[in-house]
Design a protein that fits this description.
This protein is of the alpha/beta class and 179 residues long. It has five helices and five strands. α1 crosses α3 and α4 packs parallel to α5.
């Protein structure tokens, strides 16, 4: 989907918050929303702990391909975005790649016309490091050729938009590319 907002989905509450934020941003930009789930193959042993549930960890060790669990995850996220924003063009796909999700996301971002903006959920450890710590968010934010937005779950479950909430400005992360 050329000219789109792309959001990565892993099933965590933060990734669903990212879907909600990305859907609203796609509406504001008048572009399509692309929801992607990256199925790493093979999954490095140290990465298994970051998979959402133990059943997902087991599924991660199977051959890549169509997984009912991931297809359902994508369908739920797409339905949520479409219900919140009728008329929004939403595409959802399971992308299989070799290596960590961060490498696959960066390859997708480098595709000509691939994405205008990449949105990821950030689980983080605490307020200070919450936006930049992670096996996916840190390398993607550091190396992406397109802008990256990291979304915390925060009040998103109550329908709040993280960048328009009444939270203090100290929670805003700004990156500037001097090129």
């Amino acid at each position: 989907m050329p000219g789109n907002v792309t959001v990565g989905l892993n099933g965590s509450p933060e990734s669903f918050a990212a879907v909600r934020w990305a859907a609203q941003e796609a509406v504001l930009r008048e572009v399509a929303l692309r929801i992607i789930h990256i199925q790493d193959w093979p999954v490095p042993p140290g990465h298994v702990e970051h998979v959402v549930s133990s059943s997902a960890a087991t599924a991660a060790h199977t051959e890549p391909g169509r997984s009912p669990k991931y297809e359902d995850l994508l369908a739920r996220a797409a339905a949520e975005a479409e219900q919140a924003h009728p008329g929004l063009s939403v595409g959802a796909e399971n992308v299989t790649g070799v290596g960590l999700a961060s490498k696959v996301l960066l390859a997708e971002a480098e595709t000509p016309g691939g994405m205008d903006l990449l949105v990821l959920g950030s689980q983080g450890l605490n307020r200070l490091t919450g936006f930049v710590i992670g096996t996916t968010s840190l390398p993607v934010a550091a190396a992406s050729p397109c802008p990256v937005v990291l979304v915390r779950n925060g009040g998103a479950d109550r329908g709040e938009r993280p960048h328009r909430s009444e939270r203090p400005a100290r929670q805003l992360l700004l990156g500037i590319d001097p090129r």
